[in-house]
Amino acid sequence: MNFLFVFIGGGLGSLCRYGIASWMKSYHFTFPYATLLANILSCIVLGYLVALSQKSALSSTYSLLFATGFCGGFSTFSTFSAETFSLLSSGSVFLGLANIGFSLLLCLGAIYLGIKLGT
User: Which letter does DSSP use for residue 70 in this model?
Assistant: First the structure.
């Protein structure tokens, strides 16, 4: 049943991200504002859900549906940001900064590798 909640939430999050991208496509921005907006909105939602979880005001079912599913489908950047924030705020500054650095460098490298593999 847990997989179903994540699946439904992920689908809804993906639809929202697609909706924002479709809506903003007509503006012909050179900067990826749609992705930035999805990341910001997802971070706000996930931050709110984290706060509810810390107060035990969010059931595990709703956490799977909204935090894992919806926010995961809407933007994995929100999860990255929440995990990094947790590391930094718990005093693990080195690990938080390492997460930022490794994520950026390794993921950019992985994109490059994927492109090379596909060409």
Answer: I
Tell me how far apart the alpha carbons of residues 93 and 96 are, in angstroms, rounded to a whole number: 5
Q: What pLDDT, in 10s, does the model give residues 58-79?
A: 999 999 999 999 999 999 898 8
Question: Cα–Cα distance between 62 and 57 in angstroms, integer?
Answer: 10
Measuring CA to CA, which residue among 79, 96, 80, 99 is closest to residue 88? 96
pTM, 2 dp: 0.81
Question: In this structure, how many other beta carbons lie within 10 angstroms of the beta carbon of residue 92?
Answer: 14
Q: Provide the H-helix boundaries in the chain.
A: 2-25, 33-54, 60-62, 71-74, 76-89, 93-118
What are the φ and ψ backbone dihedral angles of 30, each rounded to 5 degrees?
Answer: -85, -25
Tell me the longest C-alpha to C-alpha distance in the chain.
Answer: 50
